[in-house]
């Protein structure tokens, strides 16, 4: 498979993973506030609401959960934090809005493992 085609397949697999994760959160009462929200610092895959809380979700898809988790880097976590800060500025509660940062891992079979508050120290 050529490089361009592999890129397209990866892109579509990522979209499918994000959609599956959004449905999983939706089943537990979360509403999607934004998909692939882009600020000056970068992109956040999913931003969800449940009550007054916002959940910023990074979706990682790979052949298995361990490989997907390996793709979460410190640099990426910092980018998500910064982008989330940009998003929170537009919220009525601003930076005081209750929020957390989750990572959703999706394996090659489409199974989902959600790591709630994954960026906690």
From TrEMBL:
Keywords assigned by UniProt, alphabetized: Endonuclease, Hydrolase, Nuclease
GO molecular function: endonuclease activity; nucleic acid binding
Keyword Hydrolase: yes
Recorded family membership: Belongs to the UPF0102 family.
Protein name, entry field: UPF0102 protein GCM10008024_04560
Organism: Allgaiera indica
